[in-house]
């Protein structure tokens, strides 16, 4: 198992700036600090806000300016363009299938047979398929957790353990958690973090 030495966490300053939507503070963040917040910022800039005030309209313009020119923004925008209702329905069917056939089953409704390994498949996939790959992997881990009866176990994940894809997989996890509330993705993500070697 490889250590991810470049793994970063959101600083208290960045967290507070995000929590308060303090655009001035957000603009002062370094590129690596800003990278960690990109899924939230992109979603904030693109989704219809509850706040219709003039001050939010100004803040939104500043956020859009902050995001312009950041290469990873385009892939996050593409993630937000997916039909999440259909994704949730397929995820629900997959959970039922995994429960019925057992977690070890290679059957999947979310993902058809993989032509290559999971990480290579992730690299060559478009946004809808990336969401499905990550969600399928999360559901497999979630199923393993429920079968473990509280006992410690190790479940390796080629995708989640690869430092090369960590940022992009984290983007997908953030979008899944925000957009698929009824899909238990948040719980699956928490369970993965609890048992991940990176936790």
Automatic annotation (TrEMBL):
Pfam families in alphabetical order: INTS2 (PF14750)
Organism superkingdom: Eukaryota
Cellular-component GO terms for this entry: integrator complex
TM helices/strands, residue ranges: none
Protein's name in the database: Integrator complex subunit 2
Keyword set, alphabetical order: Nucleus
GO BP annotation list: snRNA processing
Primary residence: nucleus
């Amino acid at each position: 198992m490889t250590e991810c030495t470049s793994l970063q966490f959101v600083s208290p300053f960045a967290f507070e700036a995000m929590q308060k939507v303090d655009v001035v503070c957000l603009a002062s963040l370094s590129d690596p600090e800003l990278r960690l917040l990109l899924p939230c910022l992109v979603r904030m800039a693109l989704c219809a806000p509850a706040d219709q005030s003039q001050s939010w309209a100004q803040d939104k313009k500043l956020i859009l300016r902050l995001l312009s020119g950041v290469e990873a923004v385009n892939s996050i925008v593409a993630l937000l363009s997916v039909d999440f209702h259909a994704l949730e329905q397929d995820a629900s069917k997959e959970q039922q299938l995994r429960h019925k056939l057992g977690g070890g089953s290679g059957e999947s409704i979310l993902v058809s047979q993989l032509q290559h390994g999971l990480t290579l498949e992730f690299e060559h996939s478009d946004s809808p398929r990336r969401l499905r790959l990550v969600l399928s992997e999360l559901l497999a881990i979630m199923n393993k957790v429920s079968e473990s009866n509280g006992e410690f176990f190790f479940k390796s994940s080629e995708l989640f353990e690869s430092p090369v894809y960590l940022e992009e997989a984290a983007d997908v996890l953030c979008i899944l958690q925000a957009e698929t509330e009824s899909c238990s993705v948040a719980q699956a993500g928490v369970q993965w973090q609890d048992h991940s070697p990176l936790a």
